Amino acid sequence: MVDKVELNELEQYLWTAANILRGPIDNADFKAYIFPLLFFKRISDVYDEEYHKALEESDGDEEYAAFPENHSFIIPDDTHWEDIRLVTKNVGQAIQYAFRSIENANPDLLYGIFGDVNWTNKNRLSDELLIDLIEHFSTKNLSKKNVEPDVLGNAYEYLIKKFADLTNRKAGEFYTPRAVVHLMGNILKPQERDTIYDPACGSGGMLLEAYHYLKRQKQDVRTIKLYGQEKNLTTSAIARINLFLHGIEEFRIVKGDTLRNPAFHEGDSLSRFDVVIANPPFSLKNWGAERWAHDPFGRNIAGTPTDNNGDFAWVQHMISSMTLPDGRMGIILPHGALFRGGVEGKIRKELLEKDLLETVIGLGPNLFYGTGISACILIFKLTKEESKRNKVYFIDGSELFTKGRNQNFFRNEHAKQILDWYNKYEDIENYTKIADLSEIEENEFNLNISRYVVKIDEEDKITLEEAYNEMIESQKEFEKSQEKMIQTLTKYKVL
Questions:
Q1: How many angstroms separate the CA atoms of 466 and 33, rounded?
Q2: 455 SS3 class
């Protein structure tokens, strides 16, 4: 009997595999090699597990045990992990052949999932290095019985975070700090049978949060359906592997440019989803504005942003992708999206007048990989609660972070505090403010949080109280002096 692999043991196992690549492979490229091999090892071990189970069920009928119906994925002859393990020359070529063969044998589920790495480049991947890597991966059995999907999935996410720490500047393309993701999930509250959509899905963290949220609520995770689009091939493959390794079956991740060519539509009508959630590229340039003015999908509901900044193109695409009438969405944007003028100011005005924006949450500086700027979370709803109509709730979480040397950290306790404020929906001095649309209009539809949440610290409050008391005392002294003067003037008959 094989002992189950625990999470910390699995994390160490995966990180050691990455370290084998150090030297020939740049840190930023580790993920393109390690994740495909991990997935290859997993599906090979699961195939063996399914094969032996079918053998037992059929009293040793090997032909029956090999039927595709008995397996999650088809692994053609000579392309199993153990087949590659026997190769000692041109190992990269054997790996590449196995990957393409498996993808072609499972076109609906696995096409493109192993990415586009050139495994035959011996300057980077010598036979010796690949043999070492394969032998390291071979030290553990990654069958479902030995490694449960959630354990493997959590280890995978651990590795994504480690790779993000290594690459830093480029990591923003595929990784969002998980406490921020948890906060957004807890606000949007995915439900059973919901459809969840991320138009810039990166490594799939936002989509996974819907799965994790339902698990925390002890709801049936099998009923939700996950959809994502990602422009980068390697990153989209990482997202698909991520969902597979968590044991999720109802999902569809498509590689492609969402703003130019949205993947989910029927004719000229965009597909609509119950929950839309994303951390799109900040202030994306050359995003396709020339086509947006006459967008066939009608996404320019409030105007066309300039090609220098795609922030509000993402916002409008996501609003247009929400299910009527109860769709809800959360998007992370740079803080400048709250107050920049010009075309963006006009778009912001249109969206506010449509009463779609429910909440603005300000976050601290330097929380996201690749940028030191502050960001914000905007929550939109197609149908707001009666008490929230024609209002916007401002939450200032800019002080909620732990200072780091190169980067600040937004932790679970910070997310919990903001969630508590969000759920209370009330004015809290220094932190939150419910603003009527009329007040926002007076501010020319500027959403800069500091215009609404005014900071008053305790020292300032004491100073104000003292000033007030001094004014009262001065008034009393003045009144006494005035009374004495009147008495004096009366005595000398001046009055």
A1: 66
A2: coil
Q: How far apart are CA 437 and CA 390, in angstroms?
A: 5
Instruction: Please write the tens of the pLDDT for every residue from 188-215.
Output: 999 999 999 999 999 899 999 999 999 9
* Residue 474, pLDDT above cutoff 70: no
Is residue 425 over pLDDT 90?
yes
Strand (E) or helix (H) holding 414: helix 412-424
Strand ranges of the sheet holding 251-255, from the earlier edge strand across to the other edge:
251-255, 225-230, 195-198, 275-278, 328-334, 375-381, 357-362, 391-396, 432-436
Reported confidence tier of residue 449, pLDDT bands at 50, 70, 90: very high
- On whether the pTM is more than 0.90, the answer is no
Look at the domain 167-451 and name its fold.
Rossmann fold (3.40.50)
User: How much is the pLDDT for 406?
Assistant: 78
Burial degree of 468 (CB within 10 A; 0-12, 13-18, 19+): exposed
Q: How far is CA 321 from CA 207, 381, 461, in A?
A: 15, 12, 46
pLDDT above 60 for 264: yes
Give pLDDT tens digits for 116-140.
Answer: 999 999 989 999 999 999 999 999 9
Give the Å distances, CA to CA, from 350 to 48, 261, 306, 354, 452.
58, 25, 16, 6, 20
What CATH number matches the domain at 7-147, 1.20.1260.30, 1.10.10.10, 1.10.1040.10, 2.30.290.10? 1.20.1260.30
Give the angle subtended at the CA of 144 by the CAs of 141 and 148, to the nearest 5°.
105
Domain ranges of the chain: 7-147, 167-451
The C-alpha atoms of residue 77 and residue 67 are separated, in whole angstroms, by: 13
pLDDT of residue 273: 98
DSSP annotation of 451? G
* Three-class secondary structure of residue 447 per DSSP: coil
Average pLDDT of the segment spanning 323-327? 94
As a whole number of angstroms, the distance between CA 327 and CA 431 comes to 27
- Determine which helix (DSSP H) or strand (DSSP E) holds 328, and give its type and residue range: strand 328-334
Contact 432, 420 (CB under 8 A): no
Give the whole-angstrom CA distance, residue 196 versus residue 193. Answer: 10
Identify whether the C-beta of residue 17 lies closer than 8 Å to the C-beta of residue 91: no
Tokens of 22: 């150090």
Give the number of residues written for the chain: 495
Would you say the CATH fold of 167-451 matches that of 7-147? Answer: no
Name the average pLDDT for the chain. Answer: 91
168-199 core/surface letters (b: 16 or more CB in 10 A; e: else): eeebbbbbbbbbbbbbbbbbbebeeebbbbbb
